[in-house]
Amino acid sequence: MQTTSRRKFLGICLGGLAAAGTAATAYPLLSYLAPRSIDETGGKVTFPETEIPPDGAKIFDYRGTTGVVIRKQSGELVALSAICTHLGCIVQWENEKQNFLCPCHAGRFTPDGAVISGPPPKPLAKLPITVANGVVTVG
Ligand code: FES
C-alpha cells in the first residue's frame, strides 16, 4: 500500500517536472515565433523637430528596423528607411556631400533616397512624415 502511494507521488513529481520543462522550452520558442505587436501609437515614431540638426540626419528605430530623417538644405524634411536595398546594411548620411553612403559596398543615394551609384537595385523606401507643433511623426 505504501509502495503504491510512493509510486504515485514520484509519478506526479516527474509529470510536474516534465510539464515545467516543456513550458520552459516552449515559451521562449513561441515568443520568438509570434509576430511582433505594434505599440499603442500604431508603430509611429515621434520626436522633437529640434533633434534633427540643420542639413543633418537623425537615425531612429522604426518598427524593428532603422529609419532616418534628414533636413535638406532647402529645409524640407525627408523620412526614409535607412536599410540599403542591396544587402541590408544601414546607410550613413554624409553631410558634406549631402547624400547617403552605404558602408558595405559604397552604394550612394540622394537625399530623397534615389540611387546615385553602386549596387543598390532600388531607392531607399520613403516613410510618411508629418510635423505639427514642433513634433515630427514618422509612420
Ligand atoms: S549593402 Fe549597401 S551597397 Fe551593398
What layout of secondary structure does this protein have?
Layout: H1 2-33, E1 45-48, E2 57-62, E3 65-71, E4 77-81, E5 92-94, E6 99-101, E7 108-109, E8 115-117, E9 129-132, E10 135-138
Antiparallel strand pairs: 1-10, 2-3, 3-4, 5-6, 6-7, 7-8, 9-10
Largest sheet: 4 strands, antiparallel
Return the domain count: 2
> How much is the radius of gyration in Å?
25 Å
What is the subunit arrangement here? Answer: single chain
Give the percentage of residues in beta strands.
Answer: 25-35%
Order of helices and strands: HEEEEEEEEEE
Bound molecules: FE2/S2 (inorganic) cluster
CATH topology of the largest domain: Rieske Iron-sulfur Protein
How many helices? The count is 1
Helix content: 10-25%
The second-level CATH architecture of the largest domain is 3-layer Sandwich
The backbone outline, from C-alpha atoms, is elongated
Distance between the termini: 69 Å
**What's the total count of β strands?**
10
Top CATH class of the largest domain = Mainly Beta
Indicate the mean pLDDT: 86
CATH superfamily of the largest domain: Rieske [2Fe-2S] iron-sulphur domain
As residue ranges, the low-confidence spans are 36-40
